């Protein structure tokens, strides 16, 4: 998904703007980005570098220095369950529990065959269609609480 059409980048842009595009806000921006995406992918780090006018090597260096930042999910596929306020109100906790039970992993974990990593995010920027999950970079809107994996389970191998 392109950074221009992905609502998560709009949310990240908003967070960076709030911090005044200050280079010194890098740690806060990385925290916000992880909250939005569930992890810090290369495209996200490049986006941050560009917006803060910092060298990519600096942004990458800081992101890899701290253990609390995840650079990429371990699994071949990943699901990010949004647990932000709008999604929480619409039952995201139930969605998370269902997926945890189905795959026998907790948020932050990866299945033993490394087919799936499960992550959470604070808000992926599409609150109007909550509850939301992101499956392999694709935003799934109005996710069913009863069967949150109905159209994606087949793809998880
Ligand atoms: S709270 Fe889930 S998209 Fe905003």
Overall geometric form: globular
By DSSP (H or I, 4+ residues per run), the number of helices equals: 6
Task: Please identify, by name, the CATH architecture of the largest domain.
Answer: 3-Layer(aba) Sandwich
Q: N-to-C terminal Cα separation, in Å?
A: 22 Å
CATH topology of the largest domain: Glutaredoxin
Verbal overview:
- With 157 residues, the protein is of the alpha+beta class.
- The protein folds into two domains: 7-65; 77-154, Glutaredoxin, CATH 3.40.30.10.
- The protein is built from six helices and four strands; from the N terminus they run ααααβααβββ.
- The protein has helices spanning 7-18, 26-37, 42-52, 56-65, 85-89, 92-103; strands at 77-82, 116-121, 133-135, 138-140.
- Strands 2-1-3-4 form a four-stranded mixed sheet.
- β3 and β4 (138-140) form a beta hairpin.
- The longest helix has 12 residues, at 7-18.
- The chain starts with 6 loop residues before the first helix and ends in a 17-residue tail after the last strand.
- FE2/S2 (inorganic) cluster is lined by residues 82, 84-87, 123-127, 130, 132.
Secondary structure topology:
Elements: H1 7-18, H2 26-37, H3 42-52, H4 56-65, E1 77-82, H5 85-89, H6 92-103, E2 116-121, E3 133-135, E4 138-140
Parallel strand pairs: 1-2
Antiparallel strand pairs: 1-3, 3-4
Helix pairs in contact: 1-2, 2-3, 3-4
The site of FE2/S2 (inorganic) cluster (FES) has 12 residues, from helix 5.
Keywords:
single chain; 157 residues; alpha+beta; Glutaredoxin; 39% helix; globular; binds FE2/S2 (inorganic) cluster; oxidoreductase activity; metal ion binding; 2Fe-2S
């Amino acid at each position: 998904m392109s950074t221009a059409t992905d609502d998560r980048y709009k949310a990240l842009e908003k967070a960076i703007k709030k911090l005044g595009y200050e280079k010194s806000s890098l740690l806060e921006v990385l925290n916000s980005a992880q909250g939005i995406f569930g992890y810090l992918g290369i495209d996200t780090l490049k986006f941050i570098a560009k917006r803060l006018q910092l060298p990519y090597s600096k942004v990458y260096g800081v992101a890899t220095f701290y253990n609390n930042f995840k650079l990429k999910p371990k699994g071949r596929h990943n699901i990010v369950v949004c647990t932000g306020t709008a999604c929480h109100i619409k039952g995201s906790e139930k969605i998370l529990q269902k997926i945890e039970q189905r795959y026998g992993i907790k948020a932050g974990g990866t299945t033993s065959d490394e087919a799936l990593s499960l992550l959470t995010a604070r808000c992926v920027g599409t609150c109007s269609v909550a509850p939301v999950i992101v499956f392999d970079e694709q935003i799934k809107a109005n996710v069913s609480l009863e069967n949150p994996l109905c159209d994606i389970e087949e793809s998880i191998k």
